[in-house]
Amino acid sequence: MIEKIIMPFVNPIKKRILMPLKRAKSWPKLLAKWIKKKFKEILGQKEITKESYFAVGNYYISKKLVVIVIIVLLLLYFFIFIKPPKFVNKWLNRAPTITVSQEGAAPTYTGKAKLRDENKQLIYEGELANGLYEGKGKLYDEQGNVQYEGSFAQGLYNGAGKLYNPDGKLVYEGSFVAGSYDGEGKLYNSDSVLIEQGTFKQGQLIAGKQYSPAGQLLYDGAFVNGIYEGEGILYSNDGTTSHQGSFKAGVPHGTGRNYDKQGNLQYEGEFNNGVYAGSGTLYKADGSIVYQGQFLNGNFHGSGKMLFDNGFINYEGEYNNGKRTGQGKEYFEDGNVKYEGQFFSDRYQGQGTLLDSSGKTVYTGSFQAGQYHGNGQKFNKDGLLEYEGSFKYGKLNGLGKWYEDGTKLIYIGYFENDYMQFNELVNLSYSQREELLGKPATVQSTPDPTSAQAPVASIASSDVATSQASSQNNAIARSQAVNVTQNPTVKLDSTSIQTLAGLASVQHNDGSDSSRYRIVQLSGTITDDIPVTDDKESSTEEQAESAEDTATEDTTVEDEPSTSTDPATIPDEPAGAVTAQTITLSYPQLSLSFTYYQANSSAEEYTLQEITMSQGKVLEQFFLELQQRAVNEPERVKLQKQKLNYTFTVDGMTYQIFVDKDDKPTHAYVELN
């Protein structure tokens, strides 16, 4: 229905417009045939009539001549503009157009030319040498866009040139060698943003600047295989210098400097694989030095110095993995030495000396985990020796010596958690106790009045030297007690007994204060039972020396007449007599005395009965500690308090401490069952 309506209008258009347009495609051919036919007719006619000429005013021009001129002009046009010979292009300094295969080769041709493919698409425009691109030229891609513009050599990019992407955007601008970037140049990304600038080699940047995709400068320096290597400067995103120095495999390696985000120098020294390694200096933001020394894997390692903000040394010594480890010195902020010795993991460990801010020694000895541990010496605030002995995790623990005023020894014994432990002293054997405390200052022998009394020989001070020199049979004068213990009964050999009486001062027991005893009462039983040493010469020399020492002391005894101490004047012990006695060994400097009981002098068996502590600093401290322990350790220390008397039981051992009206201890006893 619709077709019947519109066709009457469409058919006239087809006949009058569309059909002539279709026939117009063949008009050039028809025109060429017609011209060719006319040219043949004109050239074939004889010029005998006016029809063979064109009338131009009063002149007639031969049609044949006009045709010949047109043909010549067409030939000239063809050989000059359409397909000119080489010499014509050379005369006219014009590049010929050469149709080549898809490979774009133009064999043997030399000179300027335009190369087109079989589809007449322009491939190259410029100079050729034996068919190859040579000299200045332009290379085009399949879409007709300029791909390269610049110099060529043997068909390759060579010299200055510009390389473009398919979108016509500049990719590279600079020098080429054999088709690769080589020499000075600039490389751009797909957005035409400069990303590399400098010297290229075989297509890669070897020295120059590298930029981010946004155009921010990232690095300026040497490259190897496109990676930072050699001297260079690395920049942060805000354009400030991040690192300046040597690089390897893209990271700092060798000597260099690191900067913080504000551009302040942060580190200066050696690097290894991007971290601090070797000698270097670490800085604060204000430029002051934090650390100067050796590094490894980014940590302090080896010898180094840590500084305070004021520039004074904080620590100088060895480090390991960032921790103070090894030999070193720690300082106060004013420059005085605080500690000198061994460290481990930032704490004192090993042998060392701790000082106060004035330079006085606080402690010297062994440390562990920053605390006194092992053997050491502790000093008071005046720098005088206060304690020497064993420590455990910062507390007095084990065997030690307590001093007063740095030189006066007032206690030798054991400690536990800063408390004195007399129990340990009691539990020692006599030889162990003597080895610990040394020889007693005095030895006192007192007969037991409840036993059969034996004759007693008294030795006056004026005759001590004579007695000790002549009485080789006197047992106490040559006894040496080394086996007495606190056990119920112990036996002293002849060597032990020899020590007891060989001491410097002896005095008769006249009932005076025990602290002034200077004479020992000797039992005749002991005298007769001790063999005489074979080394008489040695014994005589020792006795003489003892006599000289004794003679210098104040040995005056009231109401005691001077008597001879010749062995012959000492009466023999009556047959069958039992002579029990007590022997007291005194250590006045330590405020200690030990009392032994001998039930039968002939048996040479002794029992430790009592230990006495005299008034003094040691007793005061011991009394204070027991009171504290009774509160803090009630399961170990029990207290019974009476008027002017405190009874402490410490791990089964009983201590009686007597005090005055001001609750100040006067003396104490260790009760032994």
Number of helices: 11
Helicity, in percent? 10-25%
- What is the gyration radius calculated from CA atoms? 61 Å
Strand content: 35-45%
Q: Report the average pLDDT across residues.
A: 79
**How many strand elements?**
41
What is the first-to-last residue Cα distance?
145 Å
Classify the secondary structure makeup into a structural class: alpha+beta
Largest sheet: 28 strands, mixed
Shape category: rod-shaped
Poorly predicted runs of 5 or more residues: 453-573
Q: How does this model look, in words?
A:
The chain has 673 residues and is an alpha+beta fold. The chain has 11 helices and 41 strands. Helix 7 packs antiparallel against helix 10. The longest helix is centred in the first third of the chain and has 23 residues.
Helix and strand topology:
Layout: H1 2-24, H2 27-44, E1 53-56, E2 59-62, H3 63-82, H4 86-91, E3 97-99, E4 111-116, E5 122-129, E6 132-140, E7 146-153, E8 156-164, E9 170-177, E10 180-188, E11 194-201, E12 204-211, E13 217-224, E14 227-235, E15 241-248, E16 251-259, E17 265-272, E18 275-283, E19 289-296, E20 299-307, E21 313-320, E22 323-331, E23 337-344, E24 347-355, E25 361-368, E26 371-379, E27 385-392, E28 395-404, E29 408-416, E30 419-421, H5 422-426, H6 430-437, E31 442-447, E32 456-457, H7 464-470, E33 490-491, H8 494-501, E34 522-523, H9 524-529, H10 536-551, E35 581-587, E36 592-598, E37 605-614, H11 617-632, E38 637-642, E39 645-650, E40 653-659, E41 665-671
Helix pairs in contact: 7-10
